[in-house]
Amino acid sequence: ARIVTLPGDGVGPEVTDAAVAVLQAVAERSGHTFAFASHLIGGCAIDATGEPLPAATLEACKNADAVFLGAVGGPKWSDPHAKVRPEQGLLALRAALGVFANLRPLQVHPALASLSPLKNEKLKHVDVLFVRELTGGAYFGAKTRTVDAATDECKYTVAEVERVTRRAFELARERRQHVTSVDKANVLETSRLWRSTVTRIAAEYPDVKLEHQLVDSMAMLLLTQPGRYDVVVTENLFGDILTDEAAALAGSLGLLPSASLGVGKVGLYEPIHGSAPDIAGQNVANPLGAILSGALLLRHSLGLEIEATTIEAAVAHVLTNGPHSRDIGGKASTSEMCDAVIAALD
Amino acid sequence: ARIVTLPGDGVGPEVTDAAVAVLQAVAERSGHTFAFASHLIGGCAIDATGEPLPAATLEACKNADAVFLGAVGGPKWSDPHAKVRPEQGLLALRAALGVFANLRPLQVHPALASLSPLKNEKLKHVDVLFVRELTGGAYFGAKTRTVDAATDECKYTVAEVERVTRRAFELARERRQHVTSVDKANVLETSRLWRSTVTRIAAEYPDVKLEHQLVDSMAMLLLTQPGRYDVVVTENLFGDILTDEAAALAGSLGLLPSASLGVGKVGLYEPIHGSAPDIAGQNVANPLGAILSGALLLRHSLGLEIEATTIEAAVAHVLTNGPHSRDIGGKASTSEMCDAVIAALD
Ligand SMILES: CC(C)[C@H](C(=O)O)[C@@H](O)C(=O)O
Ligand SMILES: CC(C)[C@H](C(=O)O)[C@@H](O)C(=O)O
Fold first, then answer.
1. Domains along chain A?
2. Does A104 show up as a binding residue in the annotation?
């Protein structure tokens, strides 16, 4: 299998190295062969080529079986007046690969409950899979800017809502048969289209229960009743906000993986943390979110369920027994964490 | 002073009655005269007149010194295909009164810390004032809908951002001199206009520290470091989501007041909870958010700071000593809570 890696900026290269090392270790143990090719994206790509998503990178991604991304962005490229920004590279890649469904699983490992801002009793049974629409909405709508004003258009087509809804319901079938759809249908026209489309598609899945929530209520319910949710499906911007909020529950952003899937098999896999420029290059970033993203890559793009589960079990072992990186209360370096996961594979 | 009350739907009338009773009690004790006039808004207005904001209501509000609102909405009027919706009445009123700055103070009373989903150590020093832009953004932008697609436009002018920013900085001067501005400047054009405008206006307030946060990060930071924030200023939709998230920290939505202010003196005051149709008419809703909104009304529209503080002290006394309504772990009814606050005024 051909895997393109896009280490990107900040801690991106360090956590990508860790994820690749674990995938290589799994390949050796299972007799599979993974061919890795690294390409530029984000700030480092702007520095090298002037473009946040160089044509060579996009071409390589389109021809790969799966794409692994570290992180993009940093203060060096954050001038609000800049013509090109690292994030544009990531958004253009998501659009070009057509990965409309961003899966963000959230569980709280018992060993880390003490790090969560939430009370322990709230964390029981927390096992949520967010399905965030990733290639529509205000992220990709028309924008205007004059001296006096600016606009962003949020647009959704029925077809865009249908496909991500189906993905959510199919995932719910494999889980606890419950979908919560989040919108702001009391104010937004796109949300009313969202709600009526989700309701219609839900009828195709009579075995799955559907519930609608307004995004403001949901922001509260994620804290007061986090154990109630199974699959949560929502549009791009609401998903961005709610998944970061939910990530806080896990005790550290550094732990959480994501998978972005489209119609084809090519998926884009990335930890949900950002480039963390303050700790870049110090070998202290937590690589577990990246490593777990590698597990999702094996599962969703390569169909290697057993190997994915092996990685997840190894990560759980490290969370239970240590070592722990700084963000989760320990002193282990990025590479020590990576080595511990590899050791736990056997 | 002339105060228009808009009890609205669900528990709105019950909590409005409580707030009015407390304001009357304060008037008697302080020698002021408040003339109350009640008008229709929301679902009850649709039922009576076909309009969520009848002309007579709007006229009365414009001629008042202050407007008190209970809550609007409910399942009866929630059909996504309905032509008129209760929320339209509220949005039209906000726009017509020009109340562009929605103030939502958040503190966690020690007696209620056990009800918060957050660990106690996180709740220390939580004292945040959200300033949510209330008359712009996607709430009021152009909307389109066809069979296949829908759009919402989010628009901000520089002038709209300037005025709410100035309000936030002026409020921060009276508090801890710290403003956090929340946007999504790495993706949205309106957020880039927001950020550059806030940065420019901040230079007029060299005594106040400004920090920018992305909305996704902020959704997390409100949980991991809630004690860090003083004044948080943001656009309409982000403010809707973040203030509901933050409200969860207080242990109950029923406690929290809001004030919506514009250029003139007329303000709109409402508890942040909704119409809670499941408990409407049962005399069990917590009236403290409504009563505290009455205190904000005295402070911001009538200039009665001492009287406002008296109400706030009485509410704090009830929170400390009871009685407590169901949402905060007790059994007291709406009217018992109201009576207890009035008794604590002396
Ligand atoms: C970097 C940024 C553009 C991105 C987003 O908003 O989608 C990030 O926050 C994410 O959630 O993947
Ligand atoms: C009722 C609804 C339109 C309203 C809003 O979204 O502004 C409410 O959620 C609020 O926060 O006041």
1. 1-105+252-346 (3.40.718.10), 117-249 (3.40.718.10)
2. yes
